[in-house]
Amino acid sequence: MGRRFGRGIAARRAAPSSYGPSGARARDPEAQLLLRIAENRDEAALIALYESISAAVYACCLRILRDADEAKDATSEAFWRLWTRADRYDPERCSAMAWIMTVTRRLALDRRRSIQRRGNVLVQVQQEPIESEDVFSREDARIEIEAAFERLSGADRRLLESAYFEGLSGADIAARDDVPLGTVKSRMRAAMRRLRMALNGGLL
User: Fold this and answer.
1) Which residues fall within 8 angstroms of residue 141, CB to CB, at 6 or more apart?
2) Taking the CB of residue 153, how many other CB atoms lie within 10 A of it?
3) CA-CA distance, 83 to 4, in Å (whole number)?
4) Of 166, 2, 182, which is closest to residue 174 (Cα–Cα)?
5) How many CB atoms lie within 10 A of CB 147?
6) What is the pLDDT, as a whole number, of residue 38?
């Protein structure tokens, strides 16, 4: 989804709605928006939700990740999860904002752990004993791969990390992200293609 998702939403404005449920939801505008998303796949509701709470979601991501670019990517991914999982919200258990921030914190913490795991792998590569005749070729390759990896989008990096650093299968990733297995496979192929392009010095 990437950062274009956030920019695309920010560029549009939600249409007014006549939706007006009774009870607790009537006093919780975010709950109303989540319900519209869950029941009708209402894009206007998603836009309105983004405009209402994106600053709070971004602040939460930034506090956990300590990196503006990672926080932007995490914010986009958080709204994608809200779009695909709005039907999981139960207004009887908590306010919509409490649920949204729980989703956001979990996502940001997962991303931070993924970043840390990637760093640990790179440290291990650096510390492996290397035969003298291989030192330059292996070190150069490591640097090239690391640089190419950093040029990928946050979504591509997370997908490849899940498959190659965490050892998750395509089915595991599909279940975790609540997307079809075919979508995961196509995204993986596209991410690998972009990584190869980055290694060859091409444009992503």
Assistant:
1) none
2) 18
3) 16
4) 182
5) 11
6) 94
